[in-house]
């Protein structure tokens, strides 16, 4: 049996390939960023072919770094930015348009149009999702309507659709020469085209959106062998795991019991709570989503709180305002002051996601006075993440009836001690960081490893999980609720900023 397992982690800003051993230790890793394309206000795109090239490069680099041959890998799992939409030619593999990224808001008009005919929640019972610019379905519709000849080619069977997982699996397993066209239940659910009860594409929604079923991938489990890789560095290795990034982090954090929850602090923040085989519909602005489906076992589900802008706000402070040189500098700047100086930053750059789902919101900085300096702004930027997570935790408790005992945290921002302590303070709950930080990639590796018998069962994965650091709340309740009150007040100031064109 080969001694290692691989994971492709295709994220919003970069692509990584990580090789793990049986104890979930990182053996080698390689990473490459890709361009963020902004054709207009609220529009965000990626070049899908650049992502394929980056994937090939990081796979080769990580394999060479550890001097590994294809036969050293038991399998490879894939995890990906969800909802990012690609349509490409079946015969050439060339995209007909750039990938439309999950943050993109160009379909706001279509969202309003469909919501006016049955409300924002008209598809929620079937899909677990409100109508929003976030999901893939209406992005597909936009490409079919706006790109010349796209609809005609789609109806003739010449085009294929996929989120990034599907696009990569298709290319890795041969592309135009026999590439496998599949997606797992977690990614399929983020199109707003899959019925949660049947785990199949919903014909009624496809008809409403005008999407031909022929372009859609086959829906499969998150853990099974889809095909063999054709890249030279991993030639013949089974591609055997597929999970959307946030579900992958849930698996990587070994949250296999109902009530266990994780929060990933990345470009955005995404909190998932396992609800087992029970589909829990939200009345508090959360999403209902598949958590994972391991081989032929029944799917498990989760409640999800999706926050659009968290780490991206730190990047904005760095790139757009030049207030810091590197993202990690924000903690030093924020520590130059004792508190936020009365400043609250609501980063509704592309509207607000959970629990509000307001596409017409835009970012605001509230509470400015002459006293405020850049240290206060930096602190408000960090606190914005923690406050948004508090809103999601509160909503989750109401929907599930489960009170969170401890929050398992992962993602790039968990190395920020100031943020993690404030998160614990504002939640009045312990926050823990695992020993293995790369939980998203690890979840994909776990799914692939379970498919081929590299890992025995979920109990073995739970045994791999261990705490690296823990933060306990140290703020008095009066201060906590006062800060949260002003945060909620600031959020209301962001509502209704944009108006119909």
Question: What are the defining features of this structure?
Answer:
alpha+beta, seven-stranded mixed sheet, 23 strands, 501 residues
On the 0 to 100 scale, the average pLDDT is 94
Form type: globular
SS-based structural class? alpha+beta
Please report the total strand number as a whole number.
23
Q: Strands across the major sheet, in which order?
A: 17-18-16-15-21-22-23
Biggest sheet character: 7 strands, mixed
pLDDT < 50 stretches: none
Q: What count of helical segments does DSSP give?
A: 16
Provide the helix percentage: 25-40%
Rounded Rg: 22 Å
| Termini gap | 60 Å
- β content, as a range? 15-25%
Please describe what this structure looks like.
This protein has 501 residues and is of the alpha+beta class. It is 33% helix and 23% strand. It is globular.
How is this structure best summarized?
With 501 residues, this protein is an alpha+beta fold. The protein is 33% helix and 23% strand.
Topology at a glance:
Blueprint: E1 4-10, E2 14-20, E3 26-33, E4 45-46, H1 48-65, E5 73-80, E6 85-89, E7 99-100, H2 108-115, H3 124-127, H4 137-146, H5 150-155, E8 159-163, H6 164-172, E9 182-184, H7 185-189, E10 194-195, E11 200-201, H8 203-209, E12 218-220, E13 223-228, E14 238-244, H9 245-252, E15 261-265, E16 269-276, E17 287-292, E18 300-307, H10 311-319, H11 329-334, E19 344-346, E20 364-366, H12 374-400, E21 407-410, H13 417-427, E22 431-434, H14 439-452, H15 458-464, E23 467-471, H16 477-492
Parallel strand pairs: 1-5, 5-14, 9-12, 15-21, 21-22
Antiparallel strand pairs: 1-2, 2-3, 4-7, 6-8, 10-11, 13-14, 15-16, 16-18, 17-18, 19-20, 22-23
């Amino acid at each position: 049996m080969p001694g290692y397992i691989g994971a492709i982690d295709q994220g919003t800003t970069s692509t990584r390939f990580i090789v793990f051993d049986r104890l979930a230790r990182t053996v080698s890793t390689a990473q490459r960023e890709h361009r963020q394309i902004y054709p207009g206000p609220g529009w965000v795109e990626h070049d899908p072919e650049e992502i394929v090239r980056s994937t090939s490069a990081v796979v080769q680099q990580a394999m060479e770094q550890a001097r590994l041959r294809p036969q050293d890998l038991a399998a490879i799992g894939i995890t990906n930015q969800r909802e990012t939409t690609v349509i490409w030619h079946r015969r050439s593999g060339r995209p007909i348009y750039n990938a439309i990224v999950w943050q993109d808001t160009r379909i706001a008009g279509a969202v309003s149009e469909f919501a006016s005919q049955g409300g924002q929640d008209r598809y929620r019972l079937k899909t677990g999702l409100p109508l929003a610019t976030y999901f893939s379905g209406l992005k597909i519709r936009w490409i079919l309507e706006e790109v010349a000849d796209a609809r005609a080619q789609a109806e003739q069977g010449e085009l294929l659709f996929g989120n990034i997982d599907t696009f990569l699996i298709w290319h890795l397993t041969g592309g135009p020469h026999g590439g496998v066209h599949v997606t797992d239940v977690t990614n399929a659910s983020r199109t707003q085209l899959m019925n949660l009860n049947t785990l199949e594409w919903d014909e009624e929604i496809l008809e409403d959106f005008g999407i031909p079923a022929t372009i859609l991938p086959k829906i499969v489990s998150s853990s099974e062998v889809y095909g063999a890789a054709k890249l030279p560095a991993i030639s013949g290795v089974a591609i055997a795991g597929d999970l959307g990034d946030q579900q992958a982090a849930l698996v990587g954090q070994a949250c296999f019991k109902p009530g266990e929850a994780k929060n990933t602090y990345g470009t955005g923040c995404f909190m998932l709570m396992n609800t087992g085989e029970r589909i829990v519909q939200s009345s508090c602005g959360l999403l209902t989503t598949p958590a994972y489906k391991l081989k032929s076992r029944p799917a498990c589900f989760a409640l999800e709180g999706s926050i659009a802008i968290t780490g991206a706000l730190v990047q904005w402070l760095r790139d757009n305002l030049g207030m810091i040189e590197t993202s990690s500098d924000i903690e030093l700047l924020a520590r130059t002051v004792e508190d936020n100086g009365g400043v609250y930053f609501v980063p509704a750059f592309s509207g607000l996601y959970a629990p509000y789902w307001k596409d017409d919101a835009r970012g605001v900085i509230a509470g400015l006075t002459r006293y405020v300096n850049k240290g206060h702004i930096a602190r408000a930027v960090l606190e914005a993440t923690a406050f948004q997570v508090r809103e999601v935790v509160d909503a989750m408790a109401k929907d599930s009836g489960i009170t969170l005992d401890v929050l398992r945290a992962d993602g790039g921002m968990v190395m920020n001690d100031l943020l993690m302590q404030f998160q614990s303070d504002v939640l009045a709950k312990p926050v823990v960081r695992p020993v293995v930080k790369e939980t998203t990639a690890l979840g994909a590796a776990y799914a692939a490893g379970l498919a081929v018998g590299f890992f025995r069962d979920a109990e073995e994965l739970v045994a791999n999980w261990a705490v690296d650091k823990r933060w306990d709340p140290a703020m008095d309740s009066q201060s906590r609720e006062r800060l949260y009150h002003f945060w909620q007040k600031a959020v209301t100031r962001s509502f209704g900023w944009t108006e119909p064109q």
